[in-house]
Design brief:
The structure holds 2 protein chains of 2 kinds.
Chain A: E1 5-16, E2 19-30, E3 35-38, H1 45-53, E4 60-65, E5 77-80, H2 94-99, H3 113-125, H4 141-154, E6 159-163, H5 171-184, E7 189-193, H6 197-203, E8 207-212, E9 214-219, H7 225-231, H8 234-247
Parallel strand pairs in A: 3-7, 3-8, 5-6, 6-7
Antiparallel strand pairs in A: 1-2, 1-4, 8-9
Helix pairs in contact in A: 3-4
Chain B: H1 2-8, H2 14-40, H3 43-66, H4 74-95, H5 100-121, H6 129-133, H7 142-161, H8 163-171, H9 173-178, H10 183-224, H11 228-253, H12 257-285
Helix pairs in contact in B: 2-7, 2-10, 2-11, 3-4, 3-5, 3-10, 4-5, 4-10, 7-10, 8-10, 10-11, 10-12, 11-12
Classes of the chains: A alpha/beta, B mainly alpha.
Chain lengths: ~260, ~290
Amino acid sequence: MSQEPVIQFENVSRNFGMGPVLENVSFEVTRGQSTCLIGPNGGGKTTLLRLMLGLIRPSSGKVRIFGKRPSRVRTRVAYVPQHISFDPLFPVNALDIVLMGRLDHLKFGRYCKDCKNTAREALDEVGLSDSAKRPFADLSGGQRQRVLIARALACKPELLLLDEPTANIDLSVEAKLLETLEKLRQRMSIVMVSHDLDLISHITDDYVLCVHQHVHRHAVADLTGDVIREIYSSERRVEHEKKTLHQQGDHSHCDH
Amino acid sequence: MTEFLTALFDPDANFIRYAFLAGVIASFTFGIVGSYVVARRISYIAASIAHSVLGGIGAALYFQRTYDLPWLTPTVGALAAALLSALIIGIVSLRAKEREDTIIGAIWAGGMAVGLLFIHYTPPPAINLESYIFGNILFTSQSDIVITAILGVVVVVISLLFYNKLLAVCFDEEFARLRGVNASFYYLLLLCLIGICVVLLVQLTGIILAIALIVLPAATASRLTHRLWKVMVIAVVLSMICTTGGLMLSYTSETPTGPVVVLIAAVLYVISLPMVWLKKVTRKNH
């Protein structure tokens, strides 16, 4: 039972006007597994996520989530977009946003008591139970990102997809986020897009998927400097090295 | 003030009472729909729909007089044009996001051009174009109030019944869709509500000033609170203050009502601007 595939891609290609963004992609993620999608910008990571969500269809090939078409199992999947794509001045508080995770359980257009409890539990899980009534506008970048994760958790998903959750977040907040994610991967499959190589070990100790028009599996243990150089542009590599230095206490390269 | 109150209760001055009632009833619509418009940042869509309404008014007047169709009033024409424009803008923006601004501009100017041409060819008596462009709340009739009330109830009931879904669609359309909500339908519904709201406003402030009363009270309210339903409540009250205050001031000073109403809304908004800053300062001091 534990080998039941959560995500299946069979010879999937996806074109956008000019040419293929993804070409002949095949891979499987089985139940209980979590993994990361890494690769350069424009390599097709987000396209891969959108295919899993059923927001776009493959040009050819087959995508199956829990053995079914993605659009038919949406309620079992939750998605965490990047917080920077939201209007920070939108008039809502943290709880309002997390409640949106229960949108498919509205009764006569209202959220029931159970929905509110689930939302509060989700906020608690990301360590924001004290901030339920705080306006979205007053939250820091890291807190906003955690609110979006709580919203996804309120969906009670079996599969959690995250698009660069640590982009634009400072390192201390990132540590808290990682703690949360590590806890979550015990009970659901997580697929996370990330440029941040430090993060990978917290999500998976098995393999990552490198997305660059094609998808390759790399064992985490094999992610040596040479492999990383192959995957990333020089710009990204420098960023990563800076971050590692920063964590080691060398701040000579920092802007502040 | 007393002069206005005397007029309000004067049995012979129906027009003041009708204007007052129309303003108060329509305020519910402006406040609620305006809050969605400001939150979703689509005031330019509302402005485009408002201007395109002239096309409907012109067409209705032309066909009403040419083919003797008494039911085809300017309000019916305005409503049809507003809903049509809302749907066209909505569908184009859902299908091709990058073409949204183009279609908004086309509907805006195209609607007005159609209206002006129809009015040019409409048989006499001459049409007072100014009353449509700048509005005149003092011309409100009993049947206008009934229409305002019916459309107002439709807008309020739909907005409140689908509050949570509309809120979710405005905040994050994609996420709402992933939770099984027909996000495109609710977005189009919201644009249609804006259309209805605009039609009610044309009578009050006219086409050009309509956008002010949709946006300003809600924008003022959203500086005072951070939850959509509270923004709505405050915006409704502010709209009532604007319409009633404007009517009162314009009656006593014998100036046109529409501009006075809009100016009050603008002044309230300007006053609200430093509020956020003040709030921050007081919070820091605590």
